[in-house]
Every structure is written in structure tokens, then in C-alpha cells.
Design brief:
This protein is about 45% helix and about 15% strand. It contains 16 helices and 13 strands. The protein is globular. Bound molecules: 4'-deoxy-4'-aminopyridoxal-5'-phosphate. The site of 4'-deoxy-4'-aminopyridoxal-5'-phosphate has 14 residues, from helix 5. It comes from Polyrhizophydium stewartii.
């Protein structure tokens, strides 16, 4: 009886489980810093006004049907996605040197890329340590046997471990796959500077490594779509063939619509067509074709200059609120004279911050102060607001003393 031999998989504690125990906690001063989604200053989810507008326009249009999409999704959506990440003026766009496929959000994009690489490029894959927990799982399930890590975080400086990164990529076998976070590294919030990206590119070029960018936060990190894309654009403009996974969960707030894109930038248009056909082959045997609604919204917004401008503004609202919470937390800790250095809170970027708090301190924060955060010391800046940031700073002050 085989099924009786199956062991139980312990589900991770993602934001949903987190939120359940947070909700059940009757303490009025509780703080949820585990959420992986944007919250406004009242701690509420935010549907972007431009998304609401687009939804209404799509429904009002009257032509909405529920026919199947193409295997690789809505072309106006995938084309716009490539322009968004590479820039409309990119030669790769003009020369049609890309294969782009609509995916089940960012997760599905990483998985499709991993499946593609597993078929054609069985090499070791390097993921950062630490990284988003799903990276290892995705590459394992895609069949990768050789998953290695590069040390990304330097606990002493609470910053980037550039020397280790470069040394690891130099020592890696030629043609290895490097999975990189182009902006707002999850979970550390630490990104290489532009000069540091150039150094990473230099090593990758010497060793002929394959670059896979997992881009889940474009525009959400700095508030500027261009700035958050600068690493990807640099690699592509200097001639790399790269894979790019994009997610519209964070920057459009379309979390559950599962809207994303995988693109492969190639040397020739012919190679792009070959790659595109292979992506379709993988999707076809997996889920046949993607869901439409989220991609319809994104396509409408990205392809309409007026809506696009509104979106950029609202994206900036989210990024700016998060940046202002970093400042507020830093200032509160400085005011309290909390032992240790806290510059990293303002130097880091994006939704998450690696505080450097230990699991034991995290436990005290939970038990004594009803703070909900992951054991590794990561906090979601989106969970902070003007009403709770001071209280959180005081709690941190208490546990580190
Ligand atoms: N990659 C990274 C690094 C992420 O942080 C996330 C979101 N947690 C994703 C991919 C994918 O998210 P989604 O599937 O919701 O787009």
C-alpha cells in the first residue's frame, strides 16, 4: 500500500499561516511584520486605484469572454513586460531577440525558467545564501541535482558579502547558472551597487555563466522602474543571454491573480523563436495555458500612457511609504540609543529588512511584545506604520539590551 507510506510534508509558515495566528492574538498592541504583501498606513491591503480603473474598463468593454488564451499568454502583455524590464529602447526589443511567456506569477516564471534550463543546460545552479525559501525547492523539483550557494550576507557589516560572491562565481565551473535578485533582495534587502554589479558581470563573462534574474519587485524597491531594472539592463546591454522572471504581485498588488512573465533574451531572433517554442512545450504539458484577468489588467495599464503614468505614481506611493518607515524605525532606535548599529535599516531596500536579531530575540519579541516576524530576523517593512513603529523600536530596544 504505497499511499500509506507517504510522509507528511510540513508546510512552511508563509504569511497566510502567520496572519492566522496574528489574527487570533487578542493583544491590541500586536504587530505583524511577517506579511509578504504591501499594507497601507492603516495596516490594510491596498488595491491600486489604477488597477480598479482597469478592472472596470475591462468589464465595461463588454467583449470579455472566457476563451482559452494562447499557450504563452497575451502577447500585448508579454511584449509590454519585456519593454518594462529592458526599456523600450533596448536593442533586444527592436531586434526581437526575446522569447517571452506569460506565467503563473513570479513563482511560475522561476519554475518555467528552471524547467527550461533543466532540459538544455544541466549545470550547477548557484542560489544566494540566504534566499527566498522557494528557490531551492523550485530547482530541486525541476530536477537539478547540483544546487550550490553563494554567501550573500555579511553578518558583521550587515551588508553585502561581495568578496565571497565574486570568489564563488570565479571558482564555479564554466557555464554555471547564477540565480540573481536584480533588486530588493529577499530576505536581506541588500543589493549590490551599480559598480558591484559590473564586477559580478565581469566574472560571469569570464566564466561564461548563465544569468537568471528573479525580478519580483521592479519599481517597488526604489520607486523607480528604471533604477530597479539597472542591473538587468546592464547585463543585457553588454551582450549576455539572460533569463528574466517577472512578477506583478508586488508592483501591481495583483498577488492572487498570479500574473508574471518569463523571458529569455537571446543573440538572434531565430534563437528567440526556438526558445519560445520550447517554453510553450513545457507549459503545454504542465497547465496548457495561463489565466487571463491579471494579464489583461497589466496589459491595459502598461500599454496606455495615461494609465501607465498613474500606475508609476501609485507604485511610488508604496515605495515611498516603505522608505519612510525605514527612516522612522532608524530614527526611533537612534533616539532610544539602542545598542548596536542600525544604518542597515535605511541602507537596505524593498519590502524586507534583515535586522540581525537572533532567533532567541525574535522569540522574546513574540512572547513579550506580540511581534510576529520570521525566526531569521527578517521584518516586512510593510507591516510598520506611523502608529506602531515607535512601539516596535521600543521592543527591539528592550530585547537587545
Ligand atoms: N521571487 C522572489 C525573490 C520573491 O520574493 C517572490 C515573492 N515572495 C517571488 C519570486 C514570487 O512571488 P509570486 O509568485 O507571488 O509572484
Amino acid at each position: 500500500d504505497r499511499i500509506s507510506n507517504i510522509r507528511r510534508w510540513r508546510r512552511p509558515t508563509p504569511s497566510s499561516t502567520f496572519t492566522a495566528s496574528y489574527k487570533a492574538d487578542p493583544d491590541p498592541s500586536k504587530i505583524n511584520l511577517g506579511v509578504g504583501a504591501y499594507r497601507d498606513n492603516d495596516g490594510k491591503p491596498w488595491v491600486l486605484p489604477v488597477v480598479k480603473k482597469a478592472e472596470q474598463a475591462i468589464v465595461a468593454d463588454g467583449s470579455l469572454d472566457h476563451e482559452y488564451l494562447a499557450i504563452d499568454g497575451i502577447k500585448s502583455f508579454t511584449d509590454a513586460s519585456v519593454r518594462l524590464i529592458l526599456g523600450a529602447a533596448s536593442p533586444a526589443v527592436a531586434e526581437k531577440r526575446y522569447a517571452a511567456c506569460q506565467t503563473i506569477s513570479g513563482t511560475g516564471a522561476v519554475r518555467l525558467g528552471a524547467d527550461f534550463l533543466a532540459r538544455f543546460k544541466m549545470a550547477p545552479v548557484y542560489i544566494s545564501n540566504p534566499t527566498w525559501a522557494n528557490h531551492r525547492a523550485i530547482f530541486t523539483d525541476a530536477g537539478f541535482k547540483d544546487i550550490r550557494e553563494y554567501k550573500y550576507w555579511n553578518p558583521k557589516t550587515r551588508g553585502l558579502n561581495l568578496d565571497e560572491i565574486l570568489a564563488t562565481f570565479k571558482a564555479a565551473p564554466n557555464g554555471s547558472i547564477l540565480l540573481l535578485h536584480p533588486c530588493a533582495h529577499n530576505p536581506t534587502g541588500v543589493d549590490p551597487s551599480f559598480d558591484q554589479w559590473k564586477m559580478i558581470a565581469q566574472v560571469a563573462r569570464e566564466k561564461n555563466h548563465v544569468i537568471f534574474f528573479d525580478c519580483a519587485y521592479q519599481g517597488f524597491a526604489s520607486g523607480s522602474l528604471e533604477r530597479d531594472a539597472q542591473a538587468v539592463r546592464y547585463f543585457v546591454d553588454s551582450g549576455f543571454e539572460v533569463l528574466i522572471a517577472q512578477s506583478y504581485a508586488k508592483n501591481f498588488g495583483l498577488y492572487n491573480e498570479r500574473t508574471g512573465c518569463l523571458s529569455i533574451i537571446t543573440r538572434t531572433p531565430q534563437l528567440a523563436q526556438n526558445a519560445s517554442s520550447q517554453l510553450c512545450k513545457i507549459v503545454r504539458a504542465n497547465y496548457s495555458n495561463p489565466p487571463a484577468f491579471g494579464a489583461r489588467i497589466v496589459s491595459l495599464v502598461l500599454n496606455n500612457p495615461q494609465l501607465n503614468a498613474e500606475w508609476e505614481q501609485q507604485l511610488k506611493t508604496m515605495a515611498d511609504r516603505i522608505i519612510s518607515m525605514r527612516k522612522a524605525l532608524f530614527e526611533a532606535l537612534t533616539q532610544l540609543g539602542t545598542p548596536g548599529t542600525w544604518n542597515h535599516i535605511v541602507d537596505q531596500i524593498g519590502m524586507f529588512s534583515f535586522t540581525g536579531l537572533t532567533p532567541a530575540q525574535v522569540k522574546v519579541l513574540h512572547d513579550k511584545y506580540h511581534v510576529y516576524m520570521t525566526e531569521n530576523g527578517r521584518i516586512s517593512m510593510a507591516g510598520l506604520n506611523t502608529s506602531n513603529v515607535r512601539r516596535f523600536a521600543e521592543a527591539v530596544d528592550w530585547v537587545v539590551r
